[in-house]
Amino acid sequence: xxxxxxxxxxxxxxxxxxxxxxxxxxxxxxxxxxxxxxxxxxxxxxxxxxxxxxxxxxxxxxxxxxxxxxxxxxxxxxxxxxxxxxxxxxxxxxxxxxxxxxxxxxxxxxxxxxxxxxxxxxxxxxxxxxxxxxxxxxxxxxxxxxxxxxxxxxxxxxxxxxxxxxxxxxxxx
Length: 173
Known about the structure:
Blueprint: H1 2-7, H2 11-37, H3 45-61, H4 64-71, H5 74-86, E1 93-103, H6 106-112, H7 115-118, E2 124-129, E3 139-151, E4 157-170
Helix pairs in contact: 4-5
């Protein structure tokens, strides 16, 4: 009798093999799905906007925005701010940053007391860094306004208002 039982195949070994093959197949499929989804942005535009806004707020609080805008041209400042903003966003996003600097015309402002006399078009300089959002892309945008105060070349008090605008969108489909 012992020889007949020992000669029979164990049916549980075959079921175990099918279970392990199925689990390996499921794990491989899940890994391919995760790799495929890594290039796609899954954040909503409001979440993108919140991250970019918080990043600019942090850069302003550290003094980076004012120092960068004060010591560079608007185009250079936009490029530097864009590269710094990239550190706050995940890899699946692109961004565009625009910087406008309004020089205050103090004498005209004191007499006119309105926006066009305080900030004439001749005193506005601007620069942009990054490409435009693709047509049809969902993007988030925002604006940060600040001021730079200091002394001018003749020792007089100077004031410049700056506006940093940002646009953030997902890339990779």
